[in-house]
Amino acid sequence: MQINFKKYIIAASAATGMLIGACTKTSYVSDPNNPTVESVLTNATRVQIDQLSVGVQGTMRTGLFSFYTWSGSIGREVVYFQATESRYYRELQGEIPIDPAGIMWDWYNGFNQTRRRAEILLQSAEHSSALTDAEKAAVKGFAKTVQAYVMLNALNMDGGNGIRTSFSDLNAPGDLLRPGCFGTYQASLDYVKMLADDGLAALSTASAAFPFHVAKGWTGFEKPADFIMFNRAVAARIAMYKQDWNGLKDALNASFMDVNGSLNNGPKFLYSTTGGDVTNPFWQAKDEPSVVTLVQAAFVPDAEANDNRVFGSSVADGGIAKIRKRTTALAPPDYPLMAYELQQYATNTSPVSIIRNEELLLMSAEADIQLNKLPDAITTLNKIRVAHNLTPYSGANTKDALISELLKQRRYSLFMEGHRWFDVRRYNLLNTLPKDKPTHNVWLEFPRYKQDADWDAVNPCK
After folding, report:
1. Which one of 93, 216, 283, 303 is most buried, counting C-beta atoms within 10 A?
2. Pick the residue with more confidence: 37 or 6?
3. How far apart are the two ends of the chain, measured CA to CA in Å?
């Protein structure tokens, strides 16, 4: 995470150990190296709040690799080829069903764990006498925003299965895991919108600074008043999925969107080789032979000539293309050979963007199209096109034509950032995605996680 002092990484590790234990029903014993949840929920010190916050910031990255890679696989951006484990391509490419008790659930556990850790941070702050009311509001705003971000990600993977719209009552003695009911997709969207809006309300009355250390990746967003811009960027994503186009524009206007700014502006997850931290999970050595994220065969042929997101030097070679042509094409057995591989990060400590200005501009263009402000949409789309070495848009000035253009620009600008599968799904275009074999399927959503199904079978939702 590269928080300013290494000691905070060590402290975060202790907090993380505590929180992992809080995710299951267990009998707690006194252990100074693994404090109980109750010890921070009753009257946490400022140091404990700081440690908890570092743990939340660190765990936000958990599940990100599987979220981007599994959704990117189903959305036909990539094929994750692991020579010794065929399920990664057979299940995700639709050759066999996704196993609800299998190996595809790191994203689910990571995002739900982050939601719970953020809730423990929030509750600990509210019950602490060490913080002022304004500082408690700052913690609440941060925690609710984090919850909105991770649970929107989880919801998009779950699709119509929805997410639990309530969960553990942390104040119920003897019961640290009491999940609520799953909502429908729309009810779940309403829930994550509520989280983001609650976060905004708290940040608006917060102290000038957070009462904890903020990772360097949040530079420009490290104060509550500035963190509102990230909160509204998350709210914009939610509004897009709700098809609330006026709400989307309002959220963008309060975010960090900048029509003249760098397309890569925005907060980032940082990685390092420091003990207790993790390295960038997306980085891979060139021409890996047995565990490699390959670019789906149609991605390059479908691109416009001279598009610098596809052609030219990769990020790993000092350019800006997110992909690189392999020395030798590769594919799983019986798949068409794939000549390109993912190379969007230069090193194993390169940062990963959480949300970028380019995405915000593309959301603005989409809202303008849906609101029939077509000239405004074209102006914004041309900023994206010109920035990527393409000529200005010359297609039809119609809503349908511009939606097609928008989705194409999102496909290449937001490649492997967790969007393509959901974009084609929300426009009912799943049937347009390429298949590596005629027998493959394009999944609509992930199945209900077996542990959840088993729990609900024994403990019916009320």
Report:
1. 93
2. 37
3. 40
Bridge partners (DSSP) of residue 330 are 338
Please state whether the predicted TM-score (pTM) of the whole model is above 0.70: yes
Contact between residue 461 and residue 181 where contact means Cβ atoms under 8 Å apart: yes
Mean of the per-residue pLDDT values for the chain? 90
For residues 142-150, average pLDDT:
98
pLDDT at 173 over 70: no
Model confidence over 346-397: pLDDT tens digits?
A: 999 999 999 999 999 999 999 999 999 999 999 999 999 999 999 999 999 9
User: Strand pairing partners for 291?
Assistant: 82
Q: For 55-78, how does the pLDDT look when each residue is reduced to its tens digit (9 = 90+)?
A: 999 999 999 999 999 999 999 999
- HEC states along the chain? CCCCCHHHHHHHHHHHHHHHHCCCCCCCCCCCCCCCHHHHHHHCCHHHHHHHHHHHHHHCCCCHHHHHHHHHHHCCCEEEEECCCCHHHHCCCCCCCCCCCCCCCHHHHHHHHHHHHHHHHHHHHHCCCCCCHHHHHHHHHHHHHHHHHHHHHHHHHHHHHCCECCCCCCCCCCCCCCCCCECCHHHHHHHHHHHHHHHHHHHCCCCCCCCCCCCHHHCCCCCHHHHHHHHHHHHHHHHHHHCCHHHHHHHHHCCCCCCCCCCCCCCEECCCCCCCCCCCCCCCCCCCCCEEEEECCCCCCCCCCCCCCCCCCEHHHCCCECEEEEEEEECCCCCCCEEEEECCCCCCCCCEECCCHHHHHHHHHHHHHHCCCHHHHHHHHHHHHHHCCCCCCCCCCCHHHHHHHHHHHHHHHCCCCCCHHHHHHHCCCHHHCCCCCCCCCCCCCCCCCHHHHHHHHHCCCC
